[in-house]
């Protein structure tokens, strides 16, 4: 792997927190903040109410400490401010492709089982395996129990992390983790494809037949568990997920974007063609995704692409992972085109603030071009009479 890719690997581990973002609840926030010891006692009481023996709970928390490094990692995700071309070129190297294909051969029987049981193609799991941990080589060195407790105590997202902390206690009670020794990503994910405790409890699989689920040491266990996870998130067997396309001149750009879906037959009728292979079945709903506007790469996103957002909420990560999966399945390198220059992180923040001032929900002014920001950008482009490709430019920033 290129040095840049290795330097980026820990940042990908920091992607909050993979598919578990979809598990956030909408009720009042659970108790958070204040004295850490007093807060831990509250979690212990809740765990006891769920049926855990006091000695189990006390043993779990005996080594748990808050970790400021976790909070620093949580607040520092600037890597996702990069655009698709920059991000994908940093993550996808010939070495990663070669290692992916070698692992596809090495674990051929495992991938055959996953494809038969869950309908998830090997390229999809290989891409996640590569990006999450570089095929198991970089799994993270944060103490998992400390990370979950720190994030559950922090008042930014306790509704997400407190249930995962309670799930970690259950995982410990079942012999699935050691709170003093188990390590992983800063957000509490464990193993080669980075799964949170609740998801391990629900989807952990023994893929190598040794009678236990070891997501850190066993690629077979990790891959099979990841396949089951994707299936539980709604993966549709024997259907595509993302495909590079060529757009006809003059296509109505207001039809593009993940919030606009038409059937493949309707896209064909408008002149959309694949760059390689055949488009999906005519009846499949699909969206045209222009990650860098009308001048950059163009993709058709199928229903399975939506499942990627259950794994990770970052649009640039999701698009790159889905595209890399197609490469591992034999697709060519995308046509980068000649996109208009994008915005810097500071400019993106200013744009998001101006969009919010106009009443758009962009999910916060964080400098990251997510789908909510893209939808707001497209709406303003339409209002201002600019090309409505959802790609924010300085011309749009100035116009606002």
TrEMBL record:
Domain (Peptidoglycan binding-like) ranges: 344-400
UniProtKB keywords: Signal
Signal peptide (residue range): 1-22
Superkingdom of this protein's organism: Bacteria
Pfam family, one: PG_binding_1
Transglycosylase SLT domain residues: 36-325
NCBIfam families xref list: MltB_2
Protein name per its UniProtKB record: Lytic murein transglycosylase
